[in-house]
Amino acid sequence: MKSAADRKGGGKGLIRSTNRRGSRSDMSPPVTRKAAYRDPSVCDRCGAVYSNKTWRRGRSLPPALASAADWVHCPGCAQAESQDEYYGRVLVEVPEGAGPREEIIARISNVEKRAKANQPERQVVSCTWEGDQLTVLTTSQKLAHRIVNELAKAFGGKPRFAWSDEDGTLFARLTVGKKAGRRKSK
Ligand SMILES: [Zn+2]
């Protein structure tokens, strides 16, 4: 399987700048990070708070907690940094005239924001345009699933999902603008 991370991206429409040096070097199944965090811990990057075995975001940070907490990187941020692990891959084909790309990126950004409010570890690792194809890598299969469904709802098209035999990641595809049931057979 060709790793999406290996592809050269145009750098257009990046949600966040990414470091593309890292690529999935082997096809071993994604390993769930079971790092032990002290309670409380706070993510140095996104501000998520770890308490009662759960990462939460969007709460206020009491000064006492800030000084008592371990400052760490939450699983999502650690993954986004390493750039070599993702669990969800979304491939969106956007035919000419199917809709403004900025809107598609904005929609993805929105879905991510909502997901992160409750589950900070659910993040978009990268968004890369290559011609009329957009590849989105996520730290969460559920997030990939949600992104494709939201895009289909907003822009049309019929989502397709498959788990990769090789690495267990979820591969979600959508050709924007195609009506359901009118898929071209290959
Ligand atoms: Zn974080």
The set of bound ligands, ions and cofactors reads: zinc ion
Q: Output the number of helix runs.
A: 4
Text of the CATH class of the domain at 83-175 = Alpha Beta
CATH architectural arrangement of the domain at 83-175: 2-Layer Sandwich
Low-confidence stretches: 1-29, 180-186
CATH topology of the domain at 83-175: Alpha-Beta Plaits
Helix content: 25-40%
Radius of gyration, whole Å? 17 Å
What letter string, H or E per element, gives the SSE order? EEEHEHEHEEHEE
Outline: elongated
Number of E-type strands:
9
Assembly state of the chains shown: single chain
The portion of residues forming beta strands comes to 15-25%
What class would the helix/strand composition place it in?
Answer: alpha+beta
Mean pLDDT: 77
Q: Strand order within the widest sheet?
A: 6-7-5-9-8
Taking the sheet with the most strands, its summary is:
5 strands, mixed
